């Protein structure tokens, strides 16, 4: 614990010198930190920047987010993926208006009760925007500390994340140092104690205290349990077209891409005979294969353009412009969206 205590001022001083200028760091209000942290989940910093700016222009505060039309919210999220994040942001914004008079609560405990805010995001908002002594432990932090301690514990195990959080909480500072430690640890993980390459120990402020570095065993850590293989699902995507209109279908309420607009889809990989059996006499064109990766599932898709004489019921028929401008069509469908 003493080594960890000694590490804190080294990390905050390093961060003060190496802090990257990012739009959400200009004014670190709870709202700004919250939106940026949710966008940054599963998405690279460079990719998030334009989304963050557009989002803040459209919804500058909690109240604006709470009253946003869902279609506009999802359109602004288009391409970021994991759309439940956007829906949860709005649900939480509405709860903040109803329960807290529009002021985002400051304690990690209250924050964690809001939809879509887990321990990590609650810790990030509480420490960075509110100066609370609350750690935010993500993959970067787990990696840095696993190396710092030369720990053989499996960093994918929830118990290890919990232990790491508790250890940090016991030594976490308050005020500006809390935010500097949270961001410093994350940034150290992103830029120095690298995940998929040899760590840059020569420029690391922790080099003199780091157990893995002392043993020259930096790349032996962190230890990870075996990864589960993704399940492969075969799908057929149909671009049903009539004149200059194309059919969209809202996806089911549960499952992958729930309640998002997409092209009609069927299970299994349909060949030409199957498509013609479903749409006798239609003019059909193969649109090729595409693969989309979700966290636990892979969609292996084949696409068909099917020209119909009249629009059929059960779909929303929209022009190319309407689809591109108004509806948030998830990235999984992009290979076929491009063929409109
Ligand atoms: S000294 Fe090297 S291994 Fe240790 S925390 Fe720094 S970059 Fe990571």
Query: How many domains, as an integer?
Result: 2
Give the second-level CATH assignment, the architecture of the largest domain: Orthogonal Bundle
**Main β-sheet, in a few words?**
7 strands, mixed
Outline, from the CA principal axes?
A: globular
> How do the helices and strands follow one another from N- to C-terminus?
HHHHHHHHHHHHEEEEHEEEHH
Average per-residue pLDDT, rounded, comes to 94
Look at the helices and sheets and give the structural class: alpha+beta
Radius of gyration: 24 Å
Percentage of helical residues?
40-55%
Please state roughly what percent of the residues sit in beta strands, choosing from under 5%, 5-15%, 15-25%, 25-35%, 35-45% or over 45%: 5-15%
CATH topology assignment of the largest domain = Endonuclease III, domain 1
Q: By CATH's scheme, which homologous superfamily of the largest domain applies?
A: Hypothetical protein, domain 2
Highest-level CATH class of the largest domain: Mainly Alpha
| Number of helical elements | 15
User: How many beta-strand runs?
Assistant: 7
N-C termini distance:
59 Å
Question: Which regions are unreliable across 5 or more consecutive residues at pLDDT < 50?
Answer: none
Ligands (ions, cofactors included): iron/sulfur cluster
